[in-house]
Amino acid sequence: MSFKNLKKLILIISSFSIIACSQTQGGASGSKASSDSLAYLNGGAGEWVLKVDDFTINQTNFNKDLQASLVLQGATPEQISMYANDAATKQIYADQLINSILLINKAEEEKFFETEEAKDFINLSIRNIKFQYYVTKLMADASKNIPDPTPEQAQAFFEQAKQQLTQMYGITAYNTETAPYIAQLYKNAYAEQLVQRDIQDLKDKAVIERNTAVLGEASILPPQIGDTNATAIPQGTNNSAALPQQGDNLLPRTNN
Q1: Chain centre to alpha carbon of residue 185
Q2: CA gap 177, 170 in Å, rounded
Q3: Which of 47, 63, 234, 236 keeps 20 to 30 A from 228, CA to CA?
């Protein structure tokens, strides 16, 4: 990803998975496209935005769905406000909605989602969406309580996480142009660390047992084939090298 694209890092919207796993929220008319995954989108207030056959999405429903997608991606309130009113973003999201409506309708007609395989996948997806949404909100709340880094702290974070920042966002230098983005990624990384600490606290308090007779004894961690509980932002910061460490004195500990 180039640095130019970093300015729209929230624009990469995974709306298909969100829409496919959404639950009925009411407000639907008698459209033939009113499956559980789509019914909440049908109708709404304001002028119409999209019409696909006899399925209509009006302004309020379109805007709420777009904003929900941005929230799930970890967008800040400022980013949500900017992208929710950006014509390019809305056109991209509209295209994804059209694709989703047409494909989901086709799948419903074929009774695809009634298969056991599909039900298992949907249950998995719903669980992960709930997890990701809650973690995203926890990170956003934690980030609010983290003070902005000083230029020295932000540059130290850049030097520490340069490889990850270059690979994920195309940031190759710390300067006046990249400084605001590095500062936000710094706060995101520290917020993620705080949330991971809270998760560990929950695990420490829980009674957890593993049946190694079934699971087996793992002496070496298996290759990673995809983290189904990964958060959307900051991308790549699960790598400890990209996180402020307790001994680095990059940022004072908060009360969280």
Answers
A1: 15
A2: 13
A3: 63
3-state secondary structure of 211: coil
- What does 131-194 look like in DSSP terms, one character per residue? HHHHHHHHHHHHHHTSPPPPHHHHHHHHHHTHHHHHHHH-----STTTHHHHHHHHHHHHHHHH
Which residue, chain included where needed, has tokens 């934690």?
142
pLDDT in tens, 45-73: 999 999 999 999 999 999 999 998 888 77
- The pLDDT confidence band at residue 78, using thresholds 50, 70 and 90, is confident
Residue 57 bridge partners (DSSP):
43, 50
| Cut 0.70: pTM above it | no
Distance (Å, rounded) from C-alpha 237 to C-alpha 225?
A: 17
Q: Dig out the tokens for 18 from the structure.
A: 């969100």
Percentage with pLDDT > 70 across the chain: 71
Distances (CA, A) of 246 to 190, 203, 213, 241: 10, 20, 37, 12
Separation CA 231–CA 249 (nearest Å): 25
Burial class (CB in 10 A: 0-12, 13-18, 19+), 189: buried
